[in-house]
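Hi everyone,

Forwarding the result from last night's run.
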Amino acid sequence: MPEADNARFEVTPGTIEFDKMIFKLLEPVNDLEIENLEFNGEHFDKVQNGVYVMPAVMSENLNLFFLISQLIGSDWIIAFSKATVENQIDVTDLSEPIPTGKGLNLLGSECPIVANQVLDYFSELFKKGKGEWKMIK
C-alpha cells in the first residue's frame, strides 16, 4: 500500500483519501531516463517539451494515459489523463492532469485487473528508488 507523508500513515487504494495521492519521481525526467519507465511493453512518448504520455488502458469505456510532467513546482509527477480517441487509434485530446491516486481509483472502478497491474508498476518504481507517494493538500 502507498505510504503518505513520509510513512506517517497508509492510504488504501479505492478510498476517497487515495484520490489525493500523487506519485512523485525522485529524479528529473529527460529523453534518456524516460526509456526506463515503460509499462507492459509500452513506452512514453514526448508530446511537447517536458510532457510525456503513455497508454495505461484503452477500452470502449475508458481511455486513460499516464502523463509525466512537472505538475507541482519543479517536481516531476506521474499523473493520468483521459484521452479522446477517434477511429479507435487516433488520440485527439487529453484532459487536464488527474492526480495519480484519483486516476488509479477511476481505473479500479472500470478495469480492476489493469488497476492492479498499474499499482504493481508504481510499487516497482518505488522499490527501485525511482519515486515515492505523496499526499497533496
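The CA atoms of residues 25 and 131 lie 4 Å apart.

Cheers,
N.
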